[in-house]
Design a protein that fits this description.
Aspartate Aminotransferase, domain 2; 2 domains; five-stranded mixed beta sheet; alpha/beta; seven-stranded mixed beta sheet; 395 residues; 16 helices
């Protein structure tokens, strides 16, 4: 199934074209490590294009490929590759674009491990330098480009504060300079934002979040043109080995069937909770692209079709004891990392960010200990609101 089928995302994800010999309504789980052949000539022919033939499940597996084809189609890409985690997708995409002594332009408030990979790992191993900018102004990207800049890496909306980058403008700038672009599009999912249609070269997702949606799988995906994906599959994917196991691929395929309706429910709940928090006298600020008060609301309306259920808010209190009381007293919002599942979660970024980032990097995010992140799940929004209302009365 390709982007030329002209089917709506809901149909692409719910309708399986796979023909099982027994008529099973759900494609089977091919829980096998290798595939056998009838003859020398058959396996010899398969190795002529080992990335398109079933030889070994580390490279290609029927269950995983069905999910990959669906994701590629809804992203508007030509090919996708599922991998073992979101950070595996991120690092594979970045490594594809750079070589020793290159330079990367990225934004300040990206996912913590991505920040570490770019600023520390690549610098120490390959002398790849980087410039971290405020991505809200396209001119900042232009100013940061150097003669050896090979990649502009984006995350829009960005972590915690959900600042946006103008994807089309950045893509146009990069193309004019012969620079590759990649984006972490996890926040929006392929349902609410189409970066490839706006000119971005490579799109990655933490499938553990909205695409997986059930808090039961850790995975990532890379989507791009066939030529870029063939290069990634033949190099970063095959040689670094971050493969997707068949069972996880089956779980992802299961999740894709309900992705559009789950995203609508997450957005509906997220908007109601964001609006409630914005109106509360004990909340200083709410960070959510769907609110009209969001500074980049107009840009969000142009390049996104939804705002998901992930948001942050800043408590007016600066007392750590009260902030801890707030977090520990919630019942509907479980305390944990990650987000995008059916269950509502809360997290205090200060807990891990000061362990992952330098104080200067933390300050560069534009956050403080009073900022909390919630992932609004699929529970009834009124129950979630009442939980928040009860606990806000305690601080």
């Amino acid at each position: 199934m390709s982007k030329n089928d002209k089917l709506k995302p809901e149909t692409i994800l719910a309708f399986d074209t796979y023909k099982d010999q027994h008529g099973a309504v759900v494609p089977p789980l091919y829980q096998n490590s290798l595939f056998t052949f009838d003859s020398w000539d058959d396996i010899d022919k398969a190795f002529d294009n080992k990335y398109e033939n079933y030889i070994y499940s580390r490279l290609l597996n029927p269950t995983v490929k069905i999910a990959e084809d669906k994701i590629a189609a809804i992203c508007g890409g030509e090919k996708a590759k599922l991998v073992s985690s979101g950070i595996a997708a991120v690092t594979s995409a970045i490594l594809h674009c750079v070589k020793a002594n290159d330079h990367i332009v990225t934004i300040k408030n990206i996912y913590g491990p991505t920040n570490t990979f770019i600023s520390t790992y690549l610098k120490n191993k390959f002398n790849i330098t980087s410039t971290f900018i405020d991505g809200r102004d396209v001119q900042n990207f232009a100013n940061a480009i150097q003669g050896n800049t090979a990649l502009i890496y984006l995350e829009s909306p960005a972590s915690l504060t959900y600042d946006l980058q103008d994807l089309k403008a950045v893509a146009d700038l990069a193309k004019s300079k012969g620079i590759k672009t990649a984006i972490d599009n996890t926040y929006s999912s392929p349902i609410f934002q189409k970066p490839l249609d706006l000119g971005i070269d490579i799109e990655v997702h933490s499938v553990s979040k909205y695409i997986g949606g059930h808090s039961d799988v850790v995975a990532g995906v890379i989507v791009s043109s066939k030529s870029i994906m063939d290069s990634i599959i033949g190099n970063e994917h095959e040689l670094l080995g971050a493969k997707m196991a068949p069972f996880e691929g089956w779980l992802v395929l299961r999740s894709l069937r309900t992705l559009p309706i789950r995203m609508k429910a997450h957005q509906d709940n997220g908007m109601k909770i964001a609006s409630y928090l914005e109106s509360h006298h004990k909340i200083e600020k709410v960070f959510y692209p769907g609110l009209k008060s969001f500074p980049q609301y107009d840009l969000a309306q142009r390049q996104m079709s939804g705002s998901s259920g992930l948001l942050s808010f800043e408590l007016k209190t600066k007392e750590i004891a009260k902030i801890k009381t707030f977090v520990d007293s919630l019942k509907m919002f479980k305390l944990g990392v990650s987000w995008g599942g059916h269950d509502s979660l809360i997290y205090a970024p200060v807990i891990s960010y000061l362990k992952e980032l330098t104080p200067d990097q933390f300050e560069g995010f534009g956050i403080n200990p009073s900022i909390l992140r919630i992932s609004v799940g699929l529970e009834h929004w009124e129950d979630l609101r009442e939980d928040l209302q009860r606990v806000l009365a305690l601080i």
